[in-house]
Amino acid sequence: MYWFKFRGPAHYPDPRVQRKFEVIWLKSCGLSHREIAAAAGVQPRTVQRILNEYVARGIESLKENRYTGRPSELNQLAASLKAYFEKHPPSTVKEAQHLIEQQTGIRREETQVREFLVRIGMKCRRMGVVPGKLNEEQQAEQRRFLDEELNPRLDAAEKGTRKICLLTPATLSTVPSSA
């Protein structure tokens, strides 16, 4: 039994392609298909398939990684899950994981759920600090500001009679000082 991994002149960064090179190298060392399969960590049928490909198309064909993976079962349900999440957005990936399992009966790990959410066009939202509660006087002042100052200005901007400049910490750093 051979217990090693070949990392010689034929090293290739893709592990699937590297495994194909290992199979060819082990065959050139005179090992049987069963020994090659055990050493490379593949099935004997895979050894035969790699050798057939090498004989038919040469070493360059071994560099191609045609592995596409198995399509996720969630892909078939993507439209309905996206519609559900648009109406009931999850606040965490763990919550989305639970909702997906509840809606479909399919359980996936958090990483797979996160990748699925990105595939259907959802993004993680950063959460800010929730401000403390306002007393009644502060609430009244806030309502007055909204009703008398902010909303009229926003209405004027929608009509095109006023322009609004949004100042954020990023834009404040680019505003020239008046001094």
Fraction of residues in H or I helices: 55-70%
Shape category: elongated
Ranges with pLDDT <50 over ≥5 residues? 1-9
Order of helices and strands: HHHHHHHHH
Strand content: under 5%
Salient structural properties:
mainly alpha; 179 residues; 0% strand
Write a brief structural summary.
The protein is 56% helix and 0% strand.
Would you kindly provide a written description of the structure presented here, covering whatever features stand out?
This protein has 179 residues and is mostly helical. It has helices at 15-28, 33-40, 44-57, 59-62, 78-87, 93-104, 110-119, 136-159, 169-172. Among the domains are: 15-62; 73-119, no CATH class. 56% of the residues lie in helices and 0% in strands.
Topology:
Layout: H1 15-28, H2 33-40, H3 44-57, H4 59-62, H5 78-87, H6 93-104, H7 110-119, H8 136-159, H9 169-172
Helix pairs in contact: 1-2, 2-3
